[in-house]
Amino acid sequence: MKNIAKYIVGLLFLLIIIVILIIGKTAGKKAGKKAAEGILSTKKDESVIKDAIRKQLLELSKEINEQTPMMVNEGTRLDTSVVLDMTLTYKQTLVNTSYSDIDKVAFLRNYENYAKQNLCNNENVDLMLTQGVSYDYILYSSEDKYIGEISINKQSCNSE
Prior knowledge:
Helix content is about 60%, strand content about 20%. By secondary structure, it is of the alpha+beta class. A 5-stranded mixed beta sheet has the order 1-2-3-4-5. The longest helix has about 60 residues, at about 1-65.
């Protein structure tokens, strides 16, 4: 009789553990599902924001291209702009600079510093940089020879 009582108590104990595990598993699934929905919702929100930014960049590029080619300053002509994903790229020509007359490394370093000063300190641009936008500049000489390119993003602004 004592053995049967121990067996029943052990069986009840095992049954309670199984019920707890089933309840825990169900609760875990529900909690996991809620967490996944939250992550997907956040990713969806991020996707909506990125799409809106891309749309804004495309509109800006379109407006710029309606005015190109245009002189940015007395020595630099903006030829075109293009958007790829979260990057706005400008193709510029140094109209008074011959390819053979330029120290490409020094020029690109100086150009990058100049671009950082103008972009990184602009509140509107900083907002875009924070959202993952990059601004690329592809530079050509007066003979239309490739000089090089620079890219400004949030990380490069932080390394000023």
